[in-house]
Amino acid sequence: MTTRINLNGEIHQDAHISVFDHGFLFGDSVYEVISTHHGHLCFVNEHLRRLRSSAQAISLELPLTDEEMLQEIHKTVAAAGNPDSYIRIIVTRGVGEMDIDPETCTKPNVLIFVKSILHYPEENYKNGINIALVSIKRNPKEALNPGIKTGNYLNNVLAKVEARKAGAADALMLNPTGQLTECTTSNFFFVRDQRLMTPSLNCGILSGITREVVLRLARENGVLVEEGEWPADVLQNAEEAFITGTVKMVMPVTSLDGRPIGDGKLGPITRMMMRLYQDVLKSL
User: Fold this and answer.
1) Are 147 and 276 found together in one domain?
2) Most buried among 64, 66, 204, 234, using CB within 10 Å?
3) Residues of the domain holding 171
4) Do residues 104 and 126 share a domain?
5) Mean pLDDT confidence for 172-193
6) Are residues 24 and 83 in the same domain?
7) Same domain, 92 and 128
8) pLDDT tens-digit profile of 160-181?
C-alpha cells in the first residue's frame, strides 16, 4: 500500500504544514474525498464542483482551477501507483496569525492525499450494519451549515464516539429540531410502504455525491422516492435502510439501536440500489 501526498504541487512520501496554518488551528478548511474504481476517478467533476462551492461558502479562494486540480490529482494518483485509490483533497486557509481573523492568511495550502483504498468488510454488505440514534445533534444551518464540506467535524467525531460506546458501527444524527439528518460521514435512506425515503437538504445535511446518484437511479428504475422532514419515530415502521458514501457506496443497515429494521435482513430495494450503483461504477 503506497501513500503519496501532493503539497502545493510537489509530491512527497510524507509532508508537513505549519502549526500556524488556520486549517490546523481552527478547522478553517474545505475538503473532498474521491475514489477510483478500476483506475477510473469516480464522479470527479461533481466532487470538484462541490469543493469549489464549499470554498465559496466560507469565502476561501481556491488557488487552482478545476483543470489544474484535476492535473494534480492525476499526477498524485500516478505517483502512488495503487490499483484503486482513496483521494482526499484539503484546501486550508493557510498560515496566519494565531487569531481567528482570516485576513492574515494570504496563501491557501492545497493537499492531495492518495493511498490505497481500504474496503469495508464484505460482512457489512452481506448482513448489514447496526447504527445508533445518538444524542449529539447535527450542526444547525445557521451556525455551521452541514451542506458545506469543511474540516470542522468535531460534532461528528463525538457522535461516532457515542455510537461506538453503544456497540454500533455508526451514528444517526438528528438536527436541533428533532428531524432525521444523516450519519457521521454518510447519507441515510430508509424504505416505508415501498417508497425510498431520505431526509431533504432542508434538514441540514450534505448533498452527497453518492446520494444524488442513488436518487437518480431510483427514479430512473421506477422506485417511488420521497425527500422529506421526519422525526426519528418514523423509523419504527421502516422496512429497510441503508447509508451511502464515496467509500461505503451503498451499505445496508439492518438494525437501529440493536433492534432489527424490518425483518433484519437486506430488503429488495436495498439490493436493487446496491446492484444499480455497482453497474454505474463498472460503466465509468
Assistant:
1) yes
2) 204
3) 122-283
4) no
5) 98
6) yes
7) no
8) 999 999 999 999 999 999 999 9
* 126 is an active site residue: no
pLDDT in tens, 28-71: 999 999 999 999 999 999 999 999 999 999 999 999 999 999 99
Determine if the pTM surpasses 0.85: yes
Q: What is the CATH number of the domain that holds 239?
A: 3.20.10.10
Centre a 10 Å sphere on the Cβ of residue 267 and count the other Cβ atoms it contains.
20
Do residue 126 and residue 199 come from a single domain? yes
Give the pLDDT band of residue 219 (cuts 50, 70, 90). Answer: very high
Number of domains, the chain: 2
**455551521: which residue's cell?**
144
Of 65, 67, 88, the C-alpha closest to 77 is 88
